[in-house]
Fold this sequence. Notes:
The chain has one domain (3-128). The two termini are 33 Å apart. The longest helix is centred in the first third of the chain and has 31 residues, at 3-33. It has five helices and no strands. The chain has helices spanning 3-33, 39-57, 61-71, 80-101, 108-124. α1 (3-33) packs across α2, α1 runs parallel beside α4 (80-101) and α4 runs antiparallel to α5 (108-124).
Amino acid sequence: xxxxxxxxxxxxxxxxxVNGWTDAPNAIATAVSTRVLxxxxxxxxxVVMNFFGALVMTLFNAQVAETISNIVSFDxxxxxxxxxxxxxxxxxxxxxxxxxxxxxxxxxxxxxxAGLTGxxxxxxxxxxxxxxx
Length: 133
């Protein structure tokens, strides 16, 4: 297994961790601060719904991956495209942590599209982005 692949897998796990770290507390805080739910009930609902959300998303993962791959083109030579992907994932983690630190709400899915688009542009210029998708 190459170093680039190990780094990419680690960064994917980082993105998943940061996504849960920022999304779940926002949902819980909203329900608790408005006094709609007690804290332990809100946490319980978040745990159950995040688990079922992960299960349901497995049905759509291939379609989402195909759509994303149609948006950008990573036609780099060798490990260049994998390094660009790792850079995009690192940007998501960095942006999400910085936004969390300053209390700015973020969307990691939007950051993913922006990071992949930026990486594709860095590799192949504006022609690497399919604006019609």
